[in-house]
Amino acid sequence: MTDAPSEQTRLTPGDTAPDFSLPADDGSTVALRDLLADSQRVIVYFYPAAMTPGCTKQACDFTDSLDSLAASGYTVVGISPDKPEKLAKFRERDSLTIPLLSDPDKAVLAAYGAFGTKKLYGKEVQGVIRSTFVIAPDGTVELAQYNVKATGHVAKLRKDLGLA
């Protein structure tokens, strides 16, 4: 057995989205299968840390677009390794209306290929890879975007989905 890092798995359109059941900022548990049962499509986005400038901008952009996304048949959830208590503070501080889910052991992040080696200020580090996925009602990945930018991402996503 070697200690060399393995190439992280990346999802592509047509792959089955890994199911998850995670604690939310409001104390509930949110499962992908339940979201798919209630919605036409689910946008799952992964972000590094609550209450940081880029993650705040992205979460506020999703919150600002939530009504129009919902009207187009999309549910949005954000997932980070933060504890539910920090996510609750994030939601309250920034008046966020999207569910924020906690994945402290990073198992769901890893399953989606959203945790692994990335470049940060020119150095390779292990961390959350800002990523967004659109999951179809049948549980397959329709869109997989890795290394997205926090600023302007929601506008680009809306354009990619034909909603802009």
Automatic annotation (TrEMBL):
InterPro entries (UniProt xref): AhpC/TSA, Peroxiredoxin_AhpC-typ, Peroxiredoxin_BCP/PrxQ, Thioredoxin-like_sf, Thioredoxin_domain
The enzyme's E.C. designation: 1.11.1.24
Compositionally skewed regions (Polar residues) per UniProt: 1-11
Nucleus in keyword set: no
Family designation: Belongs to the peroxiredoxin family. BCP/PrxQ subfamily.
Subunit structure, interactors included: Monomer.
The name this protein goes by in its record: thioredoxin-dependent peroxiredoxin
Species of provenance: Nocardioides flavescens
